[in-house]
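Example 5.3 — KTSC domain-containing protein
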Amino acid sequence: MALPIVMQKVNSQMLSEMGYLRAANTLFVKFRNNGAVYAYFGVPSEHWQRLRAVASIGRYMQRHIFKKYAAARISEGEKAVSSTASAEAA
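Solution (predicted structure tokens):
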């Protein structure tokens, strides 16, 4: 069953998109450098509200999210997939 996550494009050097599933207090972020998507569990909705308003999303993530909430990589990302596909094609 797919979860109803709406990812929003963001203006950040670290992230390209982010979304929040309020029913599960889960923050989803897509990293700009490799396209991987991570889920951060148990994140209060206040952090989601602040993330959408801060000047530096990356700085906020480093100070308030990373290493404070359990996370799981839920997608390898497009860039990882495309590099694998390129290696297999060669």
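Remark. The chain has three helices and five strands.
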